[in-house]
Write a structure and sequence with these properties.
Elements: H1 2-20, H2 26-53, H3 58-103, E1 107-108, H4 110-116, H5 121-133, E2 138-141, E3 147-150, H6 157-161
Antiparallel strand pairs: 1-3, 2-3
Length: about 170
């Protein structure tokens, strides 16, 4: 019985390692990342009973160690999947904000951003302030004292066509 559990756990570990090299099977990987630590924890519970009884054999210890490795591997895969999804969400949000800036010819207010996204005006202002901290945007004041965020990197097509090699200026 222990050999069957060991073989099953080993096959699952091999399968998990093989899947980590295939980015196209993200959903399967996520399901396996949940299944692996779950099954491994069951094996840990089963082997702990033998270990605490004092009836543990070498096979029991091997299943116990493999189960610990399986649990750690599954948890790492879950964390990696979460981190990857989190990063792609952040990249999408940044691209979406920059697209709105482009639509406004490189000049926006937090209200402009809030109207075209799910952000509140305060959240939009925080996002725009981050662009300023990264020297991607600058703050300008209107005559009435309102802040306009200016993105100098957004140029008109005419400005882009007039660009010259700095060595020839």
């Amino acid at each position: 019985m222990i050999r069957l559990f060991t073989a099953l756990l080993t096959l699952m570990l091999i399968f998990m390692v093989a899947l980590t090299f295939k980015r196209t099977i993200d959903k399967v990987l996520n399901y396996m990342a949940i299944l692996l630590p779950t099954v491994s924890l069951l094996f840990i519970a089963a082997t702990l009973n033998d270990i605490l009884d004092g009836s543990a054999t070498h096979a029991t210890w091997m299943v116990f160690v493999l189960s610990l490795v399986g649990t750690a591997t599954g948890l790492k895969l879950l964390f990696d999947a979460w981190r990857c999804k989190h990063k792609s969400t952040q990249k999408y949000a940044e691209k979406h904000l920059l697209e709105i800036v482009r639509q406004h010819a490189g000049r926006v207010t937090p209200i402009d951003i809030a109207m075209q996204t799910d952000y509140t005006v305060e959240e939009a202002e925080q996002k725009l302030d981050l662009f300023c901290e990264q020297n991607i945007a600058e703050r300008d004041l209107t005559p009435s004292g309102k802040i306009v965020y200016v993105f100098p990197g957004f140029m008109s097509e005419a400005e882009k066509r007039q660009a010259q090699d700095p060595m020839t200026l």
